[in-house]
């Protein structure tokens, strides 16, 4: 699994990561972009999405 510099590079270089990202709700996409530097692999993208979705449950 290749490492990318950040989320933007991951999305540019991996069509499967891009498809997954675009399947997520826009508010979650925005939160992921805010943490772009920490997301360097498809695995970290999936992990971050799960964590942020879980956190959102407690913010309502």
Feature tags:
single chain, 60 residues, mainly alpha
Number of helices: 4
| Backbone structural class | mainly alpha
Order of helices and strands: HHHH
Give the beta-strand count. 0
In helices, the fraction of residues equals over 70%
In total, the number of domains comes to: 1
- What Rg do the Cα atoms give? 11 Å
How much of the sequence lies in strands comes to under 5%
Mean pLDDT: 96
Most strands sheet: none
Structural shape: globular
**Unreliable segments of 5+ consecutive residues:** none
First-last Cα distance: 35 Å
Task: Please tell me about this protein's structure.
The chain contains 4 helices and no strands. With 60 residues, the protein is an all-alpha fold. The protein has one domain.
List the helices and strands and how they pair.
Layout: H1 7-13, H2 15-23, H3 26-34, H4 42-59
Helix pairs in contact: 1-2, 3-4
Compact overview of the structure:
With 60 residues, the chain is an all-alpha fold. The chain has helices spanning 7-13, 15-23, 26-34, 42-59.
């Amino acid at each position: 699994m290749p490492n990318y510099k950040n989320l933007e590079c991951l999305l540019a270089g991996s069509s499967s990561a891009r498809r997954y990202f675009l399947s997520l709700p826009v508010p979650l996409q925005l939160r992921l972009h805010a943490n772009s530097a920490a997301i360097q692999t498809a695995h970290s993208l999936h992990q971050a999405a799960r964590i942020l979705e879980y956190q959102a449950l407690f913010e309502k």
